[in-house]
Amino acid sequence: MNFAQINETDGQRTYVVVLDAKEEAFSTLSNFATTYEMTAASVTAIGAFEKATVGWFDIASRSYRKIPVAEQCEVLSLLGDIAAGDDGKASLHLHAVLGLKDGSTRGGHFLDGIVYPTLEVTIIETPAYLRRRHRKDLGIALIEL
């Protein structure tokens, strides 16, 4: 992974993070956000994965139904946000639309992905503090304003 802060205006910082082949995207981005103590940011990315997993949240079971994508796929859209989690560390909430070789797509909550050949990520951090709290009634963590 390589990264650069490319702008800072009125406390709002913009980073470009480029992940290398074979890196696991979700954990790498989580570690980056935790290292830089991000508590309020938006995330966008494009690139490709050699394999990935997205999920569909089943409210009845309060869990994600995994949708594996076991082939090379284009990251047509990866977007979401970063807030502080219950543990105080950066908590990412990302969704992805992945393009397959036949032109079909798979999409949902982004769970994991092995980068191949690259993933280009833009993170715009704001000088604010957002808190994501686990909601037992729903089984997920949501931003609490």
Brief characterization of the structure:
By secondary structure, the protein is mainly β.
Description:
With 145 residues, this protein is mostly beta strands. Helix content is 8%, strand content 66%. It has one helix and nine strands; from the N terminus they run ββαβββββββ. It has one helix at 25-35, and strands spanning 2-9, 12-19, 40-58, 63-69, 73-84, 90-99, 105-125, 131-135, 140-144. The strands form two sheets. Strands 1, 2, 3, 4, 5, 6 and 7 form a seven-stranded antiparallel sheet that branches. A two-stranded antiparallel ribbon has the order 8-9. The longest helix has 11 residues, at 25-35. The chain is flat, with a radius of gyration of 15 Å. The termini are far apart. The mean pLDDT is 97. InterPro entries: DNA_bp_PD1, PPC_dom. One of its GO terms (molecular function) is DNA binding. It comes from Rhizobium calliandrae. Residues 8-145 form the PPC domain. Keywords: DNA-binding.
